[in-house]
């Protein structure tokens, strides 16, 4: 059918049929009656053209998704020359593209009979206006300069990856079965490895770059296919990353060049059916056997099986296995070992049983599997030995004697995975907004009597659906940049609990934001958003797991809250009574300055849009929730054990974690704005920052009113400012999403 597609592009007569062909198939399968109607109207075509057209009307061999995408791209390219393309019907567009009205009447009749009359063509030509002014407005800032700001310090590498993804082999086909998708993703992974992108994961071993480059590659790949992103993350981030962070220099040199080149495919076998996020208490054992100088890895019961292990079902040959290390009668806690799981022919090794997890909601290109170990013997040298070693006499050695500290040190080295997942989630949100905002700018519906229809992005409800989410996506982008920078700065720190909590907070915010934004964007595109070819189906299916992947978001929120409580108590333990008194005095000053009746009722625009107001409000909410959590927890621990006390107020703790995240993200956004020198860019970014912060306060206005921080009239004024900011941003929305777009 490729030849016939090329023929359609070159035929004047068939060109007129291009919009009809695309919409007819993109809307679903054609019925026999519909096919008969099309053939009837095609009788006047030249014989050769009619024969080509009929190859597109075979329900047993319909056009593939890639062919429809190619057809859509051609339509978009040709529509750029038409000043009013978005206002035309399908028949009118076809005639305009052909440059001849010869078939307009017949196609118009067919348009009606197929039930396509009145359908907007905006989704077909959504990029046709890309280089023209949108909605009568031109950009009031340099879009390329804004994109440079958003791309951050690794912009050049990002552009290299995007160019690489333009290669012929990187064509997405939504129609592939799970087995086909898995093989396709494996081929893509090997091509990526062959291009050298895997080497960026191991600076100092296979590259001279840093981990920020790896995160950039990871999030950029997310603009193409999320199955590939996860496969890439498992191979180079989790499996290779475990060797890089937990292995000795000798182990790094032995394995990582092959991992980076895609010659050694591996797994990261941490999660167990019975424990999930509770890594400390997983049950797989690795018992040292002195007579063979090896470890015996075993799955003691069904609930201890390793589950959801990427690369395990088909492609992995070596696994990093997390297990309880036992020597004699002593247990030394969780450690990581390298365990071969398949031989060179792809068959499971002796004592290894592997099962496929089965069909999933999404990520069909990732081969998730289940692994059981039945007394599997591995050499002593396979223990990843950066932080702990066992010598040939079976004696355990470590430079970190505290088991708890050693555990958190080892787990903390893997925080890069959460950073990458959060970045990929934000990329998925960018993709969704790029589609939805451009579509909404072009799709017209209703309007004043005797006047042109109005772009749906002009409607209040549509602006509120999309523009605050656009502002938050900008915010998460800058917060991600700051997180990567702090991660790089903290590489040499032994205690990584602070960066672990920050990474958890940003991962939670970014992935929940992605899930919310993709759904809102899908709804904003109506029925067109429901078509698989328009990407929302895959975005929803493939990104949904990000809210529990690399840590369940609610559990991670509690981890963040625990870190906040620990830091609060540590601070005052060092300063004792004076420190507590100083903090209470600060809270009292806040009450005097910000909770007095004048301030709580102040509702003028200058006040509400000032950083002084909204930054102070976000900081106050965080401080109040953390301080009150400490007091509540202390009181409950006098009556019950620590676990029950913590669990009984988990909702409060999650709220405190979210308040902390909102404050951190806002501050990162503000710092980014302050670094920008171009006044036009700075003005747009400041407006987006203000929308993000005020909308955050608006969404939790109930809490602020309960605390007496704002009055009812002030809450209404904040809501009105959100509306006004959306109105101000709307004329620049397409340009702002152009700058943000991952492509």
UniProtKB/TrEMBL annotation:
Task: Write down the CDD domains for this protein, in alphabetical order.
Answer: terB_like
A molecular function (GO) held by this record is: fatty acid binding
Q: Which SUPFAM superfamilies match?
A: Acyl-CoA dehydrogenase C-terminal domain-like, Acyl-CoA dehydrogenase NM domain-like, TerB-like
Biological process (GO), any one: fatty acid beta-oxidation using acyl-CoA oxidase
Quick check: keyword DNA-binding in the entry?
no
EC number(s) recorded for this UniProt protein: 1.3.3.6
What cofactors does the UniProt entry give for this protein?
FAD
Q: Where in the cell is it found?
A: Peroxisome
Q: Which residues form the Acyl-CoA oxidase/dehydrogenase middle domain?
A: 267-376
All residue ranges annotated as the Acyl-CoA dehydrogenase/oxidase N-terminal domain in the record: 187-262
Give the record's keywords alphabetically: FAD, Fatty acid metabolism, Flavoprotein, Lipid metabolism, Oxidoreductase, Peroxisome
Q: What is its main location?
A: other
One Pfam family matching this protein: Acyl-CoA_dh_M
EC main class here is oxidoreductase
Q: Where is the Acyl-CoA oxidase C-terminal domain?
A: 615-741
Could you tell me which InterPro entries the record lists for this protein? ACOX_C_alpha1, Acyl-CoA_Oxase/DH_mid-dom, Acyl-CoA_Oxase/DH_mid-dom_sf, Acyl-CoA_oxidase, Acyl-CoA_oxidase_C, AcylCo_DH-like_C, AcylCoA_DH/ox_N, AcylCoA_DH/ox_N_sf
Occurrences of domain Acyl-CoA oxidase C-alpha1 (ranges): 412-565
Question: Its family?
Answer: Belongs to the acyl-CoA oxidase family.
Stated name of the protein: acyl-CoA oxidase
Q: Which organism is it from?
A: Microvenator marinus
């Amino acid at each position: 059918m490729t030849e016939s597609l090329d023929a359609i592009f070159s035929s004047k007569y068939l060109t007129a049929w291009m919009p009809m062909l695309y919409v007819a198939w993109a809307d679903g399968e054609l019925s026999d009656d519909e096919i008969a109607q099309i053939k009837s109207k095609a009788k006047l075509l030249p014989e050769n053209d009619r024969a080509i057209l009929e190859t597109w009307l075979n329900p047993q061999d319909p056009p593939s998704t890639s062919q429809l995408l190619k057809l859509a791209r051609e339509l978009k390219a040709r529509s750029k020359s038409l000043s009013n393309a978005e206002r035309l019907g399908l028949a009118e567009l076809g005639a305009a593209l052909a440059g001849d009205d010869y078939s307009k009447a017949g196609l118009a009749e067919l348009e009606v009979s197929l039930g396509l009359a009145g359908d907007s063509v905006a989704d077909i030509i959504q990029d046709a206006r890309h280089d023209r002014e949108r909605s009568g407005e031109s950009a009031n800032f340099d879009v390329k300069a804004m994109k440079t700001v958003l791309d951050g310090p690794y912009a050049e590498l990002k552009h290299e990856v995007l160019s690489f993804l333009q290669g012929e082999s990187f064509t997405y086909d939504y129609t592939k079965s799970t087995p086909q998708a898995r093989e396709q993703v494996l081929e893509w992974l090997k091509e990526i490895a062959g291009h050298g992108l895997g080497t960026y994961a191991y600076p100092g071993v296979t590259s001279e770059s840093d981990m920020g480059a790896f995160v950039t590659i990871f999030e950029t790949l997310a603009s193409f296919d999320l199955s590939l992103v996860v496969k890439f993350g498992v191979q180079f981030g989790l499996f290779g990353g475990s060797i890089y962070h937990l292995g000795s220099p000798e182990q790094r040199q032995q394995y990582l060049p092959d991992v980076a080149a895609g010659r050694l495919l591996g797994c990261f076998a941490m999660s167990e059916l019975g424990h999930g996020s509770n890594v400390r208490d997983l049950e797989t054992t690795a018992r040292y056997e002195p007579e063979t100088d090896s470890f015996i890895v075993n799955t003691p019961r069904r609930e201890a099986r390793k589950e959801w292990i990427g690369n395990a079902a088909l492609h992995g040959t070596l696994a990093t296995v997390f297990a309880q290390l036992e020597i004699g009668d002593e247990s030394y806690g969780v450690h990581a070992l390298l365990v071969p799981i398949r031989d060179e022919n792809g068959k499971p090794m002796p004592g290894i049983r592997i099962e496929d997890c089965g069909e999933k909601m999404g990520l069909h290109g990732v081969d998730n599997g289940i692994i059981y170990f039945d007394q599997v013997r591995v050499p002593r040298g396979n223990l990843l030995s950066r932080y702990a070693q066992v010598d040939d006499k079976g004696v355990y050695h470590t430079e970190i004697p505290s088991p708890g500290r050693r555990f958190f040190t080892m787990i903390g080295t893997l925080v890069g995975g959460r950073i990458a997942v959060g970045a990929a989630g934000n990329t998925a949100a960018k993709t969704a907004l790029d589609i939805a905002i451009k579509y909404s700018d072009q799709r017209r519906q209703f309007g004043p009597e005797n006047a042109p229809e109005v772009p749906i992005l002009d409607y209040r409800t549509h602006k509120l659906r999309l523009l605050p989410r656009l502002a938050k996506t900008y915010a998460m982008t800058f917060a991600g940049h700051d997180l990567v920078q702090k991660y790089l700065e903290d590489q040499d720190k032994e205690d990584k609990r602070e960066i672990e909590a920050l990474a958890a907070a940003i991962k939670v915010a970014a992935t929940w934001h992605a899930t919310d934004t993709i759904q809102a964007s899908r709804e904003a595109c109506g029925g067109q958003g429901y078509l698989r070819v328009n990407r929302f189906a895959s975005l929803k299916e493939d990104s949904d797991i990000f809210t529990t992947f690399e840590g369940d978001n609610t559990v991670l929120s509690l981890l963040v809250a625990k870190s906040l409580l620990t830091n609060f108590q540590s601070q005052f333990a060092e300063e004792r009574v004076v420190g507590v008194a100083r903090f209470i005095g600060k809270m009292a000053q806040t009450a005097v300055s910000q909770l007095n009746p004048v301030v709580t009722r102040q509702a003028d625009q200058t006040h509400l849009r000032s950083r002084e107001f909204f930054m102070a409000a976000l900081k106050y909410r965080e401080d109040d929730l953390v301080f009150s959590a400490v007091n509540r927890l202390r009181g409950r621990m006098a009556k019950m054990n620590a676990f029950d006390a913590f669990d009984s107020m988990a909702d409060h703790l999650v709220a405190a974690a979210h308040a902390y995240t909102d404050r951190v993200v806002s501050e990162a956004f503000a710092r980014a704005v302050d670094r920008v020198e171009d006044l036009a860019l700075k003005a747009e970014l400041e407006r987006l920052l203000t929308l993000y912060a005020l909308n955050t306060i608006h969404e939790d206005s109930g809490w602020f009113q309960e605390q007496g921080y704002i009055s009812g009239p002030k809450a209404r004024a904040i809501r009105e400012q959100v509306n006004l900011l959306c109105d101000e941003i709307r004329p620049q929305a397409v340009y702002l999403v152009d700058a943000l777009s991952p492509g």
